[in-house]
Predict the 3D structure of the following.
Amino acid sequence: MNCAQRLPRAAAIHDISGFGKCSLTVALPILSACGVEAACMPTAVLSTHTGGIKGYTFRDLTEDMRAIWQHWKSLGIPFDAIYSGYMGSVEQTEIIGEMFDAFRKDTKLILVDPAMADNGKFYAMFDARMAQGQAALCARADVAVPNLTDAALMTGQEYHAGPYTESYLRDMCRRLCDLGAKNVVLTGARYHDGQLGACCYQGEKEQFDVYFTQRVQGSYHGTGDVYASVLTAALLNDFSLPEGMQLAADFVYECLERTRLQETDSRYGVDFERGLPRLGMKMMRMEAEK
Ligand code: PXL
């Protein structure tokens, strides 16, 4: 660890769901624990996420977002990564596209998690226009990290619930690269239902890799955000894409195992907090305590 060097810095662009452990409430602690300085731009403020919880409040921050990145730009702050996720409106995808263009030359990683759909369906309030907007962001991404539903919606393919064949996964990755993404990590991938993880495709090398863990019963909210946040941190800590994919999947698996034992309501998110110290040690390539 070289403490004389500044930390890698990421701009995290997601909503704040006050309760429910997703978006910024997981991205910020994960990035910090992994030795990444996190700036943030909230896209919306909600009382809870929209996944299976009724009556949530929703404050759209579209009007502030251009002014936020333009202020950062005027200060000359370099961002090593820009990491975008859940958008509060389609217009926000245009504003963030402009931000990508404005920061591109000083940024080594633009990572886009479309965070708009799961299990074959759009999240509340979204439709095909959001798929188009997120596809335009993925087109500018160094790494696009959609789940298989996001991917199908952005490439105009029919959604399949899985499990998947290698040729299906390769084909989907290539379609996302055809949109313009340089590299793709496709989450929710598996060859059979006893496993779960992701595949990645590195466009330039045409290299395809998969990494799965054992599948934990149940489907918990926010795991996509946990996964993409760990991946972002890993890439900023100079791990390769396949290594990052492995760190992220192992971390999500451990979170799911703890959460399952606690019999938590699946809408309340996963216990990622107890995994952070060990994750930080791994990221800094220090021997983690047993
Ligand atoms: O985890 C994705 C996500 C992020 N933010 C909000 C959501 C969801 C998924 O439902 O509702 C507000």
Q: What stands out?
A: The chain has one domain: 9-289. The chain has nine helices and eleven strands. Residues 15, 17, 22-23, 46, 49-51, 86, 115, 123, 222, 224-225 surround PXL (CB under 6 Å). The mean pLDDT is 97.
